[in-house]
Amino acid sequence: MSFAAYNLAGAPSCNSKDNHWVDFDAERGKGHFVEADGAYLSANPPILYSTYVEMRDGVRLAADVYLPFSIEKEARLWSELQHKQMVIRLAAEKVEASLANGSNREKQKKTEHQQHQKDKHEQQQEQEQGNEHEPQHEQRKLQEQQEETQGNQHEQEQEQEHEHTHEQEDEKELHNNKKQLLSFLRRVEAKLKEEENHLRSTVPKLPVYLEITRYNRRSEHFWPFTLLSIWRHPRGASLNVWSWQTQQFLVANQYAVVVVDTRGSGASFGYRSVDLGEDELLDAEELVQWSRDQWFSSSKIAAGGLSYDGMLGLSIAARGKVDAVLSLFSPIDIMNELVAPGGFFCHSFLNDYTGLTTEFERNGSPWRHMLKSPLQFPFHVLLGFLFSFGGSSGVIGFEAELPLAILSHKKNWKMTEAVSGVQFYDDAVSFGENLKAQPSSFGITPQIMETLAQQKVSLLAVGGFCDSATARGAIRLFSSMQKNAPESRQDLWFMVRRVVPQLILGNWSHGGRRSCDPFGGSFSCFESDLYKTILRFFDCRLKKKCWGGVEEEMPVHYWQTGTAEWREALTFPPRENMKNFDLRLTDKRLSDVQLEEGPEEAFSVRNEGLGSLFEVYRHGLEHTLHDVTQKVQHYANMLELQEEARVSADLLRSASLPSSPAAAATTAAAAATAAADEVASLSSLHAAPKRIHKKERRPSKLSQLLSGLLLAFLPQRQANNERNLKQLFNHDFNAHLMQLPPLPDAAETNAVASKQTVTTTQAAAAAANKRTETAAATSANSSQAAAEAEAAVANSLTAFQAAERSVDYEVEYLSSSGEYSRWPIAQHPFRLFINYGNRLFLKTKQPEFSLSLGVSTDEDKEREPFSFSPFTPSQLLARPLSFLSQPLERDLQMVGSAFLNLFIKAKHCNEISLFAYLEDVDVAAGFSHYVTEAQVLASNRPSEVRDDLPVGSYGRVLRPFSRKSYKPIEEDEEVNVSVNFEPTAWTFKKGHSLRLLLTGSDLENFQLNPAKEVLLPSHWKVLTYSAFLSIPLYDHPSAQQE
């Protein structure tokens, strides 16, 4: 293999072809918007003030308000007016309190005087009764003394009465003065209220964008970095780290932006028992009303944001509180898309997300979590959170209350702890004494989506094909809006463009911070245009100011990888010109079949080399250094894998291993017998030549890193010398042929587009129906020709089935898709790049959890489970099972979700774990590109298998992952492991091959459910006679013209 086999698409340049379909430079020239660049923001800095907003239960939430510089005069007047009103209000409250205290004191004195007179009268009566028993001369003497005493007391009482009268007069005068002062203050207050109403009537009214976040609305900024303008922020002691791009662009274009720390986060008080709980949603409703009542508000409110913020915005919108909602890369089904896709626990997401959010909420900054695994995070991000960015910024004027707010977050729930004991999506999860919920309710449920559609809310949904599994969530949300919103029906689209939902799908990571298009730059040029798209959407929905062709364009735009162009449609995937392209899996090894030669001209893979240094100006030094660091490490790993593959190939050539299926079966049986004799040995579980120990010395890690550094900077335009597909996989005994159907021409595609499925799919589905009661009935044929074709395919399939064709595979449980994948989305906003490398060299990884195998032998004797964790893999190169097609005769444009129909037999196990990957093999370059993937734990049985869905729709096989649908794998059972692949849009070029790769693990990202006892099979028997891979093909009009 040449160096081109390890090309990582070079420098951190942006993918220039994915610029927006709208010419925003021309639109800016027409005056539709202003560019929020550094020059504009320096001359027109946004106005910021912060405050606490008190909720119904007394919990106070921290809110920042950003206003355009154009209303600086009105904002200053409003600020002065608010200050005056606050002073007058406080003075009036004090006067009222003083008046109330004076009245209370007067009542108290009157009561005391009455009590004194009463006590005096009782004392005189007691003295008179006592004098009656004294002698007469003594009585006269006592009487004289009493008269003298009474005279003195009377004089004192007169003096006290005189003083009391004067005090009463003074207090009365003071009371009257206070009443006059209060009356004056009330008049002043009324006058200020009139000024406020006047200012309200004259100030320009602005639509309000409300973002309620859990990721710190604003962070502290440390000296000396406060002397710098970071991300176009004004120099200062705090800055908006999370949503600064949206905030800057909208404020510059006459929107008010309100950013609030949600309950239990940032500088807000309170805690959350669960995400999107009732308290949090009630807070959101009050914040919407508070925003609507503000002096600058036009009463038009938009909500949403990135990730969790978008989910909260959708939940508010479903309650009918906002006019437009923004869902940027927001998960919809939390369990199915993030936490446990396919029934596995996605630990690369769970560990990072829980750690980061916990540190944000309980300590204000995530640097403690980052230092636990510093190599996972970009170096400049670590430096930023250690030395530049601090914790959450307090509310201006209330900074001393920030520690108390953070202290109240200690009771927040932790997702990892809550779901650790979950086995099924319908299990009950406890969040407190009186709060329980099912994991299936986490996120935006179908009920919420249906309610959202009925609220007539304008929706802009943006998703990334490399953003975990959230692209299908965005598609499902958009489709629900189209189906359930009366104004969004497809047949009324041209009449009601302003309320129809919009969907944008690109080849992006979470947040759109990276492009995973292997044929373009690793940054997305669309990222800067995304915020202009948001402005255009809000302008049309909230201001009725539609520009840039927003009223004429289709509601769906998606990026076609390989063709490198934006396309539009009414739905995703499109409904017209679509057809399933079904490839049949066979038991034929590639080494045993005749294959056509590859293209004569080699496809060159480009490496930018030193050009990466010139990207510093565009993307910044920190991003460039980060990319170089990641790519050097990736290059070094790939070089090590290449070296191991070369040594393995040399040993295989010298060993003269059997090439015929019969000889291979004999060898495999002998290896299985040897494995049964030494179950405790890991290496004996893997038949030769799977585990090959190199006798020659490996290159050192330092030399590999130096080689990787050299290759990262040297421009290369080389190609693979082994242009033939058979030569490329000649020494891979797990590589098999995947048979292509006849390629339809454009006319044939148009003639049968309404059928949705091709006859091969129907025939294979019929065979699958014999194995499961849930499979859908085959659809009727639309023409006699199609019926004859189906009959021919069905007869062929029946004959093929009778042979009981299958492939025996020793399962690889140590494989990994790498650390730069679509799944660790908590790191994606930090611009972690997405790159799967050359999939011809799949890497192994040491497992971090227990994995038990049931060993299968020819004697069918059940053996004790073997646990191979912990241990160090004997080699780096994984051995997956793969099926490859012949090189394509023309381009194939895939749009939507592929489907794999597959059954597997296994012994001595209760579970089958399957990871399936669809790849694009560039034969000339010797490079296999990752396209999409699927995974499933097969004990979660399908509830339904459908073939009546539109072509390319996700969900042809439905698995509820419920306790009811769970059934352990039985001995020699034909298990349905059919899966839906994550949706994408990809063009397979002429001369390339399609590759289906199957393996038993992805250790970098997924682990088995720790709450279940799992026993996996050491071998699979893959039933190829009924297996097929269905690719949704779209014949684009331009391709038809060609």
From TrEMBL:
Pfam families: Peptidase_S15, PepX_C. Keywords: Hydrolase. Residues 535-1021 form the Xaa-Pro dipeptidyl-peptidase C-terminal domain. It comes from the Eukaryota. GO terms for molecular function: dipeptidyl-peptidase activity. Residues 104-144, 154-176 have a biased composition (Basic and acidic residues). SMART domains: PepX_C. Transmembrane segments: none annotated. Residues 99-176 are annotated as: Disordered. InterPro entries: AB_hydrolase_fold (IPR029058), CocE/Ser_esterase (IPR005674), Galactose-bd-like_sf (IPR008979), Xaa-Pro-like_dom (IPR000383), Xaa-Pro_dipept_C (IPR013736). This is X-Pro dipeptidyl-peptidase domain-containing protein, putative. It comes from Eimeria acervulina (Coccidian parasite).
